[in-house]
Design brief:
Elements: E1 2-4, E2 7-9, E3 12-15, H1 26-35, E4 61-64, E5 67-76, E6 79-84, E7 92-98, E8 103-105, H2 113-117
Antiparallel strand pairs: 1-2, 3-7, 4-5, 4-8, 5-6, 6-7
């Protein structure tokens, strides 16, 4: 359990590498979590940067070189509780993370090419 601004916040492992996802699976897990299915083009974390940039909010994606995670709710400042595939030890966790240094994008807006090409 982590302490953020005096609040106790739990970290939980919610899974491992999903069936059908590559060894480096953060993008694949994020697409399963956000869209309910694997979108192969989104397996590569950097492809998430093609979505429009936005302000941090629940459901948005935080992207940096080699990693992507989905924001769930803000805890304090730039600390968010996130859904984080391949967050270490090949586990998927929901836990507090700083989004400092991440680009925030809206996977539900703008580019629909990923969603359409995978149907």
């Amino acid at each position: 359990m982590a302490s953020i601004s005096g609040m106790q916040v739990s970290e939980k492992i919610v899974g491992g590498r999903p069936a059908g996802c590559p060894h480096a699976f953060c993008g694949c897990e994020a697409s399963l979590y956000k869209f309910g299915r694997i979108i192969p083009e989104l397996n590569l974390a950097s492809n998430w940067r093609r979505f429009p940039r936005t302000a941090p909010a629940s459901g948005m994606a935080a992207v940096r070189s080699g990693h992507v995670m989905i924001l769930q709710h803000q805890l304090a400042g730039n600390i968010w509780y996130v859904h984080d595939g391949n967050s270490g030890g090949h586990a998927t966790r929901e836990h507090p993370r700083s989004i400092a240094g991440y680009a925030i994008v809206d996977p539900g807006a703008g580019s629909t090419s990923f969603r359409m090409s995978s149907r």
